[in-house]
Amino acid sequence: xxxxxxxxxxxxxxxxxxxxxxGRIRSGILLRSGQLSGATNVGVEAVRExxxxxxxxxxxxxxxAEPTEIDGPETTHLPLFxxxxxxxFETDTSLEDLYLHLLEESGERLVAAIRIIAAxxxxxxxxxxGKDRTGVTVALALAAVGADRDAIIAxxxxxxxxxxxxxxxxxxxYLRSQHPEAVHAVALATQSxxxxxxxLLDGVDARWGSAAGYLRANGMSDAELDALHTALVESVADxx
Length: 240
Description:
alpha/beta, 3-stranded antiparallel β-sheet, 12 helices, 9 strands
């Protein structure tokens, strides 16, 4: 994976390069980030140069608060959370439970996002921070084509260090003031612990057989899974 600089955008990286069944993940096809609303003119140009399709996983409230207007790439809005982001803090949801909620409630939308990746155009997947909704979507896509599990987990865990420390400190202080009894709020907003993603992927395997099995159960065909593999995986031999 490669950390990238899109001026004004946090947590940008290309997941290409990690080992996968049949070779390695192709560079330049699947990128991930936080929201794009802060992109400067230079950042917008970087997005236009690299990206053909943007998948925005935020809900309508988030999009309205931080709209993104980047001409050029096609943008598809696929809000993954059924209910507002705020509700997860009010109910003190853990990361583990949040991700289980995504798997159980948003399977068709996760598949819709991964179908866009399978089309093979340079695609940027993002939400607000680029941690949870983006993390689950990207991890499922990578796991479904046999990307190395430790590499998938390392990519997810990298997010925490890519978030501006002053932002994380400010949000943590705010959450402690608003939800003083909450156990999970700070982790929900700012952390991406490797064991959480490992548990998610292990849980998918236990319940659906594999990430590909999960996608099949939510409507993805074998032909679409083959297309995802073709889009994401390149033979190392082909690259000399």
